[in-house]
């Protein structure tokens, strides 16, 4: 049985640069007000430790806000509303499966995969689907598996791991499989080189 188009969902998380810019500016304005209040308090009592701490924290927040606004200007220069993460979801019967997805390392600070999964879960609940499957969690939970961070990300949504039958590969032509592995390694190597340049 083939899946119908309404059972396949391709989702993309974009950054709305206008809304994000407004949020950053409001936060920056608030912190600049805090700087002025702390400076006024220190003008009245230079030994006020609480005001000194408030001033230091507000100044750090202002500096951070300035950096984020400059980064936003760079994002806008590269094109409006960049895609941060994508995912392919399949819903069938009473389960939605996250089949595959990815995100850009450059945009990791936006935590787009969290938003993407949250959106998909909300869509699943609205459709009456009660099971959400992250799919593909490594079965080694010793604390240091290769993709333990992925496991922790998935567990962060409050789910549980269920052990299911694994997947197996039948290699009928070993030289083709070796060629595929080499191509994957070359692709990974070229990405690293391009990021440096």
TrEMBL record:
It catalyses: beta-D-GlcNAc-(1->4)-Mur2Ac(oyl-L-Ala-D-isoglutaminyl-L-Lys-(N(6)-Gly)-D-Ala-D-Ala)-di-trans,octa-cis-undecaprenyl diphosphate + 2 glycyl-tRNA(Gly) = MurNAc-L-Ala-D-isoglutaminyl-L-Lys-(N(6)-tri-Gly)-D-Ala-D-Ala-diphospho-di-trans,octa-cis-undecaprenyl-GlcNAc + 2 tRNA(Gly) + 2 H(+). Pfam families: FemAB. The keyword Cytoplasm applies. The keyword Acyltransferase applies. GO terms for biological process: cell wall organization; peptidoglycan biosynthetic process; regulation of cell shape. InterPro entries: Acyl_CoA_acyltransferase, FEMABX, PG_Glycine_Bridge_Synth, tRNA-bd_arm. GO terms for molecular function: aminoacyltransferase activity; nucleotide binding. Its EC number is 2.3.2.17. Keywords: Acyltransferase, Cell shape, Cell wall biogenesis/degradation, Cytoplasm, Peptidoglycan synthesis, Transferase. Belongs to the FemABX family. This is Aminoacyltransferase FemA.
């Amino acid at each position: 049985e083939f899946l119908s188009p309404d059972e396949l969902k391709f989702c993309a998380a974009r950054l709305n640069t206008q809304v994000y810019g407004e949020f950053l500016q409001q936060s920056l304005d608030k912190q600049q007000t805090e700087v002025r209040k702390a400076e006024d308090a220190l003008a009245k009592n230079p030994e006020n430790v609480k005001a000194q701490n408030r001033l230091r924290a507000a100044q750090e927040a202002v500096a951070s806000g300035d950096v984020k606004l400059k980064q936003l200007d760079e994002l806008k220069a590269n094109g409006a509303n960049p895609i941060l993460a994508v995912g392919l979801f399949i819903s069938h019967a009473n389960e939605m499966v996250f089949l595959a997805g990815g995100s850009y390392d450059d945009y990791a600070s936006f935590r787009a995969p969290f938003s993407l999964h949250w959106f998909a879960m909300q869509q699943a609940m609205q459709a009456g689907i009660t099971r959400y499957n992250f799919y593909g969690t490594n079965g080694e939970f010793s604390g240091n598996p290769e993709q333990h961070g992925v496991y922790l990300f998935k567990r962060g949504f409050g789910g549980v791991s269920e052990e299911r039958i694994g997947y197996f590969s039948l290699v009928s032509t070993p030289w083709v499989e070796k060629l595929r592995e080499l191509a994957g390694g070359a692709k990974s190597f070229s990405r690293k080189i391009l990021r440096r340049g």
